[in-house]
Amino acid sequence: xxxxxxxxxxxxxxxEIYVMVLVSQxxxxxxxxxxxxxxxxxxxxxxxxRGRVHWQRLRGAVSERRPPAREAFDGVMITTxxxxxxxxxxxxxxxxxxLLFPPTRYLVRVVVFFLFAGRFKVATSTAxxxxxxxxxxxxxxxxxxxxxxxxxxxxxxxxMPTQLPPAPPTGPESPSQGDREDPAGRRDS
Length: 189
What we know:
By secondary structure, the protein is mainly alpha-helical. 60% of the residues lie in helices and 0% in strands. The chain contains six helices and no strands. It has helices at residues 2-27, 29-63, 69-86, 90-100, 102-116, 131-139. Helix 1 crosses helix 2 (29-63), helix 2 packs antiparallel against helix 3 (69-86) and helix 3 runs antiparallel to helix 4 (90-100).
């Protein structure tokens, strides 16, 4: 497996450079660079827009309580396709475009399913918590009453407690709502 990956890392860039040389000979070096740049910009835009849309679809499937396998796989394929568009090269851009179109994504999904279906065991379970079941669960719990003590903590270096301002007077001696004094000594009427 490691030999295959190493060969791919050596052969792939050589193939990309070869295709770039062929394209630049056919249409010119400037136009080849323009196509590579536009491919990268398109990949960034697709990643930004379609990534957000598929994230919303994935969240919608989860909120509808259905397995989000298709949405997750489509999101991975779109992200991979956009990343391949961003990479410079015409082979990677072609593969990226194949992963972005829904019909070819469906074919990739089918091929991946048949290649890897035997390797995974699928286990499903359903769990629903209705209000009555949750209440039954909660009713079996014990309630505890904890006694505690409050301790005054000060931040002063001398250890003396901080003095709080006196509480405003309450009762008949306090000024009424309409007769409040402001700090300048004037009375409201």
